[in-house]
Amino acid sequence: MTETAAAAAPLPVLIVDDEGPARALLRQHLAGIPGVRVVGECANGFEALRLAGELSPRIVFLDIEMPKLDGFEVLELLDPAIAVVFVTAYDSYAVKAFDVHAVDYVLKPFEASRLAAAVERALERLRRGQPVRAAELHAEARREGGSLSRVVVRDGSRVHIIPVEKLDAVEAQDDYVALKSEGRTYLKQQTLASLAAALDPSRFVRVHRSHLVRLDALARLEAFGKAGHVAILADGSRIPVSREGHARLRALLG
Amino acid sequence: MHPILAHRGRLLPYLAACAPLAAILTALLARPGGLFLGEAVALAVPLTFAYAFMGLSAWYPCRQVPLIRSRALPLVLTHAAAAALVSATWVGLGVLLAGALGLAPALTGLPGRFAAQAVTLFAAGVLLYLLAAALSYVLLALDAAAEAERREAELAILAREAELAALKAQIRPHFLFNSLNSIASLAASDPPRAQQMCVRLGDFLRRSLSLGEKASISVGEELELSRAYLAVEELRFGARLEVEEELDDRGYRCLVPPLLLQPLIENAVRHGIATRVEGGTLRVGVACGGGRLRILVENPYDPESPSRPGGGRGLANVRQRLTARYGEEALFAAKRLADRYLVVISVPAEMPA
Description:
Largest interface: A-B, 28 and 28 residues
CATH architecture of the largest domain in chain A: 3-Layer(aba) Sandwich
Largest sheet of chain B: 5 strands, mixed
Oligomer: heterodimer
Distance between the termini of chain A: 60 Å
Order of helices and strands of chain B: HHHHHHHHHEHEHEHEEHEE
Number of strands of chain A: 15
Number of helices of chain A: 9
Helix content of chain A: 25-40%
Distance between the termini of chain B: 47 Å
Strand content of chain B: 5-15%
Shape of chain A: elongated
Number of strands of chain B: 7
CATH superfamily of the largest domain in chain A: Response regulator
CATH superfamily of the largest domain in chain B: Histidine kinase-like ATPase, C-terminal domain
Strand content of chain A: 25-35%
CATH topology of the largest domain in chain B: Heat Shock Protein 90
């Protein structure tokens, strides 16, 4: 898309904020900024994902504290090609926001010119076109402030929220991780290393290069082959344990 | 551990104080018709110091039957039994010692002469026991006083810290930023509501600034502050936020430390109502009866929404301040049910003079 084409066809924008007046203010300011056009607005994370699917926005203005899914979780599940601008009253999330490659971080209350600058940055990012794997970066960012308490997975139009207490095991499969929870398996585009880094290391153990296990889900360890081991989970599934994995398990179980 | 044995600084003076007692006991044993002076010294000195340690045992019955809180009969019986036991053991020790000394050729008559003194020695033992018990009670009283003083100082520091934290937290900046953002929005779209919001926000700020300085305010004043806060939040959340109050007149007039209710209300909005897509009803109940003031704050929350940081801090501060003010008389319970959150406070009701 050329500069002139961009000017001719304004980019679709989605507004996500759970407060009506806050959405109205964004709409009002964005109406006066050339190059963008508000195509939809909504008040929670689920709606944001649904509307993003229907309306294909190129830029999303996203609040952070919202019902159902917070802004970070929405970003993680959005198409990585979408430019995300966080708009929030909390300055404490700023570092994390840039770690997950948000385009900008606008603090409430703001002036129209501040929003125009954010739009400018978003357009610049879209021109350069650098999609980012948000899940990886999200995991990186979480490392700063404690462990993940839940994992969000998108399955077509549905979003699954898996509390870490119910995440039994994770297996690496090419570019994906297979998350096992309550007898079901969910696929998510992320590396096992980045997910492992985001989870509490005292509760989740990398028992194998491509397997992660929640300690409480572990029923017992069995010898397997020559000096090898296999982990049996409470639901009966068997997971290979490498020599390094066995050492890590023994260190944690004492 | 016994307080005298636990403190090195107490043991030496204690033993030194036994020296005159040894002299008195010597005189008692060597009085006309008793033992020879040398024999009396040889028995009285070791026996006195032996008693110095046996007498320490008086501390344990003293701790069992505190002087003020015990009834007379158990008090007398306990000490009588302890005195008899300690004195009998002591006389027994004396008999053994006299027997041992009697093995020397010059002192063959000692065991016999000592036996005649057994009753005297027993009486002396009982008197010494009473002395030891008195000393123990003094030590217990000293320890209790020191403990009370330390506890009081601790509570004062705790109260001070909690008040400071409450003052710092009384205006949450995010609430202010979000409200200003709403005003900026309404200024263009709905100027009369923007004005209304400015007025409500001003009202809330003025109230919270003036309340923080007082030691006690009425529940009614506290509720006025919360209403001013909720009036602002209603403009932000629209139909998502509903409030129900259930109050009684006496509860309204009760005195409480300032900013006790407000953090609970703010928590209920931020961690409760705001986590639900459809919002919900915040319930506040205040009741006074049977000398107690009971406050209840209840809100729905969405267990499937991500938890927000800072949830426990406001509650912890309220709990600390309650403990600092009412000690064990304060009851604070926070309960997370499947989809509702409940905070219950019960404190002694304080009515204005």
